[in-house]
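This follows on from our talk about sequence and fold. Go ahead and set the record down below:
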Amino acid sequence: MRRNGLERQRAKSHFPPDAAARRMLLRIPTAPPEETVSSARRRLTDPKAVWDSVSYVYVVDDERHLLGVVSIKELLRSDGMQAMRAFAKRNLAVVHPHSDVRVAAARAIARGVKMLPVVDHDGTLMGAVGTDEILSTLEAEHVRSVLSASGLAATRARFSEVIAARLPQLIAWRTPWLVVGLFGGMLATLLVDGFRQDLESVIALAFFIPVIVYMGDAVGTQTQTIYVRSLALEALDKRHYFAREVAVDATMGLVSALLIGPFALLLTGMPQVAAIVSLSMFLVMVAAGPVAIAIPELLRKFGRDPAVGGGPFTTIVQDLLSLSIYFAVASWLLI
C-alpha cells in the first residue's frame, strides 16, 4: 500500500544526515506501466500538481516497485497513444537509502543522469536524489580536496572555519607533518651525500636526480588523490584496485623510461648513464603507486587523518624511495 507524502517525509527524517534517503526528493512524477504518454503529459502539466523535479517520470507498479524510467525529453516527443512501459528504460542506476549521498553523486555522474532513484531492499521507489543535491555534493567534495591538498582535513574543519581560524590554530593544523617532511628532506640530503663518490665519478648522474624524484612524486600524488577520492565515493575491492594500479604504473613507467633513455644518451653520450636513468625511471614509477596507497591505509590504521598527513608524509617517503632506487641502480650498473 502506498504511503502518503507526510508518512514518507517522516520516514525520511530517520535516516543519517548524509544518507541518500535523507537528501532525496519525494514529490517526483511516477506512472503505471499501462498509462499512455498523453495521460502522463496531462498529469505532469496539471497546474495543481506540485513536483520537486520533472526531469524524469518513474514507471512503478501498484506497490511502487520501480520498473523503469522515462526522461521528460522522451515523454514529450513520443507518440501519445503509447504505453509508458513501451519505451521505459529498465537498466537503471539506483542507490539504496542508507548509501552515502557522495556515492549517489558519483554514480549519477558515471551514468550521465540528472537524478538517481532511491530504492529500498525490495526495489520500492522511495524518492530520488536530485540535480541540486548532486551538484552541491560534488562542490563540497571539491572543497574538501582543496583543503586536503593544502594539508587541512575537511573532516576536522569546515571551509568557513578554516577561513576564520586564528593563526595559532592554522599553525597547529599544518606544522607537525611539515616538520616531518623537513626531517625527511634532511635524510634525503644525507642519502645523496652517501653516494657522493658515484656522483663524482659520473657527474652526469646528478643531472637526472630532479626528474627521477619529480616523476615519483607525480605518480604518487595522482594515485593517492584518486585512491582517497575513490574510498570516499565507492566501496572498493582493494586487492583488485591495488593490482590494477600496479599495472597502470608499470605501463606509464615503461613509456617514461623509453622516452628518457634516448634523451639521456643524447645529452651525455654515455650508454651506461642512459641505462641507469631509464631503468631507475621505470622502477621508481612502479613503486610510487603502491606506496601512495599504503601510506593512507597505514595512517588510518594508527588513527591518524590521512588528509592531514598523507600528502607531506607520502612526498618525503617517495623522495627517499626514488633516490634509493636511483643510487642502487647506479651502484649496480657502475660496478
User: Anything to note?
Assistant: The longest strand covers residues 66-71. Confidence is low (pLDDT under 50) at residues 149-159. The chain has 14 helices and five strands. The chain has two domains: 5-135, 168-333.
